[in-house]
Amino acid sequence: MADRYCVFGNPIGHSKSPAIHALFAQQTGEDIVYEARLAPTDSFAASVREFVVAGGRGANVTVPFKEEAFRLCDAHSDRATLAGAVNTLSFVDGRILGDNTDGAGLVRDLVFNLKTPLSARRILLLGAGGAARGATGTMLEREPAALVIANRTAAKAEDLALHFADLGPVSGCGFADLIGESFDVVVNATSASLGGEVPPLPEGVFSPDAMAYDMMYGKGDTAFLAHARQLGVDRLADGLGMLVEQAAEAFFVWRGVRPDTAPVLDALRRA
Ligand code: ATR
Fold it and tell me: Looking at 16, 66, 115, 156, which residue is catalytic?
């Protein structure tokens, strides 16, 4: 019988993860099935236990359960501990192991797919919520010249920077503090694009040849990417690559096999 995996979220109906993992399984010959499971917001833990009893081997976790998943785990990878959130669960010998592949997915998409090195570059990370937190440690591992976290609520960005201060040159501030600064890579980890909004960035934040990256994705440009394009930025990417890469990293955690992501990303872009 095929090994069972799933993604838990709420809502979960539009998740692309089942399609992505089905393509990975087909490509690698791994015998798995992967489904989307809606967990009620007040009973995530019970939903996970039910899946374990039904023979589940592992699961992804998405909004709004990543922090709760962290608390549910018996053990954590270093990167999950740093992020304080878990997106990948493995069920092994009655224990729940937690990992976080979001940061690795982002960095892999930027560095390998988009040929955008982070090392010795100036990086601006917009937002200081869960998505930003998941990316900070992994980006600092690439040894940027500077990682500035800017957030609507400046104090949250400062706290986040403090949390990662041992790992590299990271600082936190509000958007207005960015006046006069420019960056090689600007990553939007706010949820502003969801409401069609753009963080208020001072002019000149994008250096010539900068990459504008939105962790969100959708049909056409997100609000952030449309804004960057208007400012003359022509290196733009949405978060679909990150989605596929974090899935590939989770697949590797579970199966020990690394799928080729390029054809899967192509298939999703065409769909
Ligand atoms: P996620 O897990 O997606 O990161 P979150 O933890 O709720 O979600 O964080 C949302 C982030 O988007 C926060 O940084 C939030 O800013 P605040 O901390 O000031 O609330 C940011 N955000 C949401 N809407 C925004 C908007 N319209 N403009 C700028 N930032 C916004």
Answer: 66
- The minimum-distance atom of ligand 1 relative to the CA of 131 is 4
Specify the length of the chain in residues: 271
State the DSSP code for 111: I
Secondary structure (DSSP) of 225-241: HHHHHHTT--EEE-THH
CB 104 within 8 A of CB 243: no
- Distance, CA 160 to ligand 1 centroid (Å)? 13
Predicted TM-score (pTM) of the model is 0.96
Task: Assess whether 66 carries a catalytic annotation.
Answer: yes
Report CA(94)–ligand 1 centroid distance (Å): 36
| pLDDT tens, the chain, 271 aa long | 899 999 999 999 999 999 999 999 999 999 999 999 999 999 999 999 999 999 999 999 999 999 999 999 999 999 999 999 999 999 999 999 999 999 999 999 999 999 999 999 999 999 999 999 999 999 999 999 999 999 999 999 999 999 999 999 999 999 999 999 999 999 999 999 889 999 999 989 999 999 999 999 988 999 999 999 999 999 999 999 999 999 999 999 999 999 999 999 999 999 8
**210 alpha carbon – ligand 1 mean position (Å):** 23
| Ligand 1 binding residues, C-beta < 6 A | 127-132, 151-153, 156, 189-192, 195, 197, 199
Residue 77, number of CB atoms within 10 A of its CB: 18
